[in-house]
Structures are given as structure tokens and as C-alpha cells.
Fold this protein.
Amino acid sequence: MAKTQPNVLWIYGEDLSPDLASYGTPAVATPNIDRLAGEGTLFSNAFVTCPVCSPSRSALITGTYQTHFDAHNHRSNRDKPLRSDMKLITDSFREAGYFTCNSPGPPYNRRGKTDFNFQRENPFDGIDWTERDKGQPFYAQINIPDTHRVFKPDPERPINPDDVELPAYYPDHPLTRKDWALYLESIQILDKKVGKILNRLDDEGLTENTIVFFISDHGRAHIRCKQFLYDGGIRVPLIVRYPGNVDAGVISDELVSGIDFMPTSLSLTGINIPHYVQGQIFLGSEATSRDAIFAARDRCDGTDDRIRCVRTKQYKLIRNYHPELPYMQFNGYKKLQYPLWTLIRILSEKGELTEVQQHFLQQTRPTQELYDLQNDPHEVNNLANDNSYSTVRSNLNIKLDEWIAATGDMGETPESDEIKSYWDKNMDESYRDKMESRGISPDISDEDYLDWWENKLL
């Protein structure tokens, strides 16, 4: 192994959409991530393959769609080994002489998040690259948790809720604004840690020879975002810096999928890509372009569902396999953590929502949703029944069907009633235990729960 072999560092922000200053978001301050963007390439069309952590992370670490190897249902196969013909990105780097490590960031004293939908002993060699042999290259992940709920306020730079811009599908209410402001403040906390990481690379003389990826496992933890296939759930920040090898200060609108991170990282270091990998290389001499990305949502916690999407630069087709179910079917995590989950129901009962805001509370869903993303970036105008888009819809359906067949989408086989019952019970018990730990009855009325949220946040 040559001494000049580059290091690779993946910096994860959890549950993070591209709500950064470098992506044009007002109110938030992210000077360190902005610095990284100025020194590398920012990708404006990067998407993960699932809008919840464990299936997405399973895909990211293997370069393969989670639906291909039974990792698509959230937290379902943690006791089962990874398929024998597959391996992790860490295996490829380890075989090439790299040291592999994972931490949640400064002070680098404990293991970072993995959260895979399969069992794998010791996926990393250690916690921090200081543990490696002298001169040994490293592959590191730093999984920074601060943008995962519960959001972390930034006392050094609080954000005025009046300054935030809300999507049209959210009601303009003080509680919504405060919750969104706290999300942006948690991004500022994340940004400070990114700054410490970048400064450490500088101080240790590693900057020039380290390929840095700034990414997320999926989109923001707000309703209609995390656990759904709208862009709020699957679009993520992606910034890559590799001095002298990746263009600096450039914005790319190339479509990139999360499963592309693995093969691109290996390709940039000259390491062979495993034969089974379904991702593509998007940087370097072997880079190729995508015309579409694909994403899937299956069971999340105890909430059963199956949704698939195909997205090009201009259009997205979403296929709901359970149109008989509401968007807001019960989910313990969301009821526990999202104040808007409770607020929006009350505002609906009072008749205080716009038609766009009311849509997410419908008791059934369309079988298909089609959006013109250039003219409707918030995905609120469903064109699936508009005959003038019939050719677009047909072509996207063909693409989606071909992807399902080519990748062997295991979501076509339903889970057993036994598994569903187990996760239903697990979600219910967890929800009740956590509500009681707050001193709140799990059976609290929406009105009283809203009072609790307002007393907590406003």
C-alpha cells in the first residue's frame, strides 16, 4: 500500500435535509459546512434509497438497495447475518490495508451509530483513526447525532421563529415555527462539530490526502418528510472535498443515489468494487450519469406500509401500495416527538388548514402521485390524473417496474402476521413507556397534549 493512499472520511448528519446556508436556506448559519462546500463539490440532487435510518444505512454501507437483500423493513433483521455473498465498505477497505473506525465525533471516545438491518460483528476496527498503525490509511465514519430529535438548541445563536421559512404544506403557527427553528439550531450545533473535524484534519496534516464526504442517512424529522418519499424524506446534503482531485466551489445538479457513495469512495482510492454493488460511480475518471433515482419505504417501527418512487431531475412518481391507509396512520415515534403531529389534527378540526395542509390528513391515498418538481418543488400538486402528463406517468411507471424486477424488490413479499404483531406490540409498549416517563398518560387527549407541547416549547 503506497504511503500516499488517500484516507476517506464520511461525516454523517442524522435526519438532515439540505437545510444549510450553502444550499440557500435562510436563518441558519453553517459557516463550516459552507467552507467545505467552497473547497469541494456540492451536489444539489442527492437522494438516499429510504427515508428512515436502518434500511438507508444498510444500503449506504453495502452499495446495494435495501429491498434487494431483505433489509427494507425498519429494524426487522438485526439478528440475521448479512447475506453471505455481500460485504460492507469497511471489508473492502480493510482488505486493501485500511484501518476502519466510527465515532459520533468530538471527543472521539465511543463508538458511533451503525443501525444496520442485519447482524455483523465488528463492522469497524475501532473508534478513531489515532488507533491505526503509523502511516496506515483510514476509512472513518463520524456519525453526528445532534440533528436527530430531540433537537438541540444553540444558545450561542438562537434563531427567531419569525425568521424561518416554512413549506406550504405546514400551518403557519407559533409551535410549528418554534419546532422548525430548533431544527435549524440543531444544524448549527452540527456545523460547529464539523468545524472541529475539519480543523483537526488541518492540524494533523491530513486535509490534502483525505476525501471528505458530508452526507446524511435521510431527510429531516418532520411530518411528511422522514418516513415518506417526498423530497423532505429522501433528499440529503452531499458535499465531497478531495483537494486537487474534486472541483472546488462547484455545484453539480447530477442525480446521485446513496448507494453510489460506496462505489465512488472505493473508485477514488483505486480499490475494486464488489461485483454485487448496485450503485454507480459519480466522481473521477470512471464517473457515469444517472437519469433517475429510486427509493422505497416499507414498515417503519410498527407502522406497516409499502411505497416506491422513481425521480428524475424534473418529475417524481410515487406509488402507494396501500391507498386504503391514511398518510398519518399511528406511529409512536412521531406522536412522541413531532409537535405538529398533534397540532395539525386540532387545526383540521377547527377548519384552520389550507387545502394543501389538509391533504396529509386524508384517510385514504391516491394509488399514484406525480409531481413536476421544477414547477412544484414542495410536491403538493398531484398530476397523476392529468391526461396531459400521461406519457410522463407511463414512462416513469415503466422505469419503476423495470427497477423492481431488476433489483429483486423483496417488498413484494408481505411480512408474516407474526412479525407484524411483534412490531405492533413493540411500538405500542415503547410509546406508552416513554409517555409515562414524561409523566403523561399515553391516552391523553390531543388538546391536553398540545398544551403540554406549548408549555414545553413556547
User: Anything to note?
Assistant: The chain has a mean pLDDT of 97.
